[in-house]
Amino acid sequence: MARKVVGFGEDELRSLAGNRSFERGLGYVDAVSGLEVGDGSVTAVVHGTGVYEVELTLGKGTGVSGWCDCPYGQEGNFCKHCVAVGLTVLGQAAAIPRQRAAARARAAGLEGWLTALSRDELLALVREQMAGDRALRRRLELRAATTHGDLDTVRERILALVDPRPFTRYGYIEYSDAASYARQVAEAADALRALIVGGQATKAVGLAEQAVVALDKAYGEIDDSDGVVGQAARAVAAAHLDACRAARPEPQQLAEWLVGHVLGEENEVTEVNPLDYADVLGPAGLDRMRHLATEARRRNPNGWAEKYLVERLLKAEGDVDALVTLYAKDLVPSGITHLRIAEELDAAGREDEALAWAERGLRDTADEVHIDGRLADYVCDRYARAGRTAEAVIVRRDRFRMERSLTAYQQLRTAAQVVDCWESEREAALAILREDARKGSYGGPVLMDALLDDDDVDAAWREAAGGADDRQWQRLADLSREARPSDALAVYLRLVEQLKGSTGDRVYEHMARLLLGARDCHRVLGTLDEFAAYVSALRVELKRRRKLMTILDQHRL
How far apart (Å, rounded) are the C-alpha atoms in residues 131 and 126? Predict the structure, then answer.
């Protein structure tokens, strides 16, 4: 019923968020407040480690998408806060159609009221709003100055908007003030775009350059944990590029500014990329940039910024040999530089040379415990294409013996199964991990992970007492509910007892999952009455933990 009304259900939320975020979102439903339903969207506030704003957009037919200003949400993910708001909407599904209709009515009423106002009444309303909203007043003053061509005022206002000093406490912009500062920076970006549209692109270029320098200089003293200042600062940098495309400044001077900014101490937040300006620079500007970059690299051959700039220029020019030479001067132990060389040669159609460099990378990093896994992936992929599958097994075997990780074990298994030699390879790999476990080294936990990943439950039970951690014990119990319910039950109950001394939503959700596992074991054993008595006693013991009681109720425990 709820899905028909709002266009989505719990399954859609789980699919968008993933199991982990969905399960965590269950614990935040009670933290949702200020739910507002619009015609096609829902907004709310979720109280977590911070106070986060969430907006869900409801499709006209079916579906939902979400945005949250938490760090994970700003990366484009459907986070636990979005899940919590979605679940709240589902819980109030019956009221949603009425609330949507009310939102449409309010919007229509507002539009009709504004349309009916006279010019004088509208002016009075705007003045009233400006009197109580300094930010609105600043935006309108800036727009008026731009329209009237008052460039001195525009310059003063834009530079004031990116000035961090009004927000600085003890020489630092704290997290609580970062969002307010970011809003001002975004206003500056909007003002620069208004200048461009108003035919003042040349003026916008100079102002944007000053703003970019000021922002990069200030950023090191800002707690921008949510990334809001960075996002606004990059909008200012984008406005600079747009202004240059409109104004077409002198190419060589622009090249000098770009190189100077990239090689300066600050280019941390605006992330200005000189090659984005290639169409504005033209041949003369690019030649000047190339000369400046080469000279800077000669003066400081170990400088990261200098190397980055030269690298970008060589990529733009398509000079693969020069790029290979540049990379080869600084081969790093992880093998990533060898891989970059291989990829550049591959893109140029020089596949044999590319594979040779990747193979050299494996040889050069053979004694390194941890390398960039993409290097081995690259070589094995090329071997598979060429039918050299046995050699791929050798690569995976060598990396497993160095890394002793579950990922390396899985990769060895995949390669060996292709050649039909997994049985012998597995025996040898497990022997190595068992010896590590006997010595008390890091191979012990990996041994358990490998056995569990193979679904070799009997072997995992034999090895568990020698070094399984709680996560592995729980995984083992999860795999054994049907075949070994008594053993699995003992694990679940032991882990529940361990959690009694801890608090918090995450702990309570974990405890509920363990209890669900224990209930499955009792069901197989035919002892559900014992489980009911255990949960009743647990509820009495922990009755003061109201959130735990709520979570147990949600899981019908």
Answer: 9
How far is residue 168's CA from residue 154's CA, in Å, rounded to a whole number? 23
What's the burial of 13, exposed, middle or buried (CB within 10 Å: 0-12/13-18/19+)? Answer: buried
The structure tokens listed for 403 are 């890394």
Determine the Cα–Cα distance for residues 263 and 299; give it in Å rounded to an integer: 12
User: Any residues with CB less than 8 A from the CB of 310 and at least 6 apart, and which?
Assistant: 293, 294, 297, 326
Determine the distance from the C-alpha atom of residue 544 to the mean position of all C-alpha atoms in its chain, rounded to a whole number: 37
Q: Is 65 helix (H, G, I), strand (E, B) or coil?
A: strand
Compute how many other C-beta atoms are within 10 angstroms of the C-beta atom of residue 537: 10
In terms of pTM, does the model score above 0.85?
Answer: no
pLDDT in tens, 319-366: 899 999 999 988 999 999 999 999 999 999 999 999 999 999 999 999
What is the distance, to the nearest Å, from the Cα of residue 60 to the centroid of all Cα atoms in its chain?
Answer: 28
Amino acid code (one letter) for 368: E
Tell whether the torsion through CA atoms of 363, 365, 371 and 372 is positive or negative: negative
Amino acid letter for position 275: L
Other CB atoms within 10 Å distance of the CB of residue 247: 17
Which long-range contacts does 196-204 make (Cβ < 8 Å, 24+ apart)?
Answer: 196/239, 196/242, 196/243, 196/246, 198/146, 198/147, 198/149, 200/146, 200/149, 200/151, 201/243, 201/246, 201/247, 202/243, 202/247, 202/249, 203/151, 203/154, 203/155, 204/239, 204/240, 204/243, 204/246, 204/247
> pLDDT digit string (tens) for 72-117?
887 778 999 999 999 999 888 888 888 888 888 888 898 999 999 9
Q: How far is CA 207 from CA 19, 68, 274, 491, in A?
A: 47, 32, 18, 66
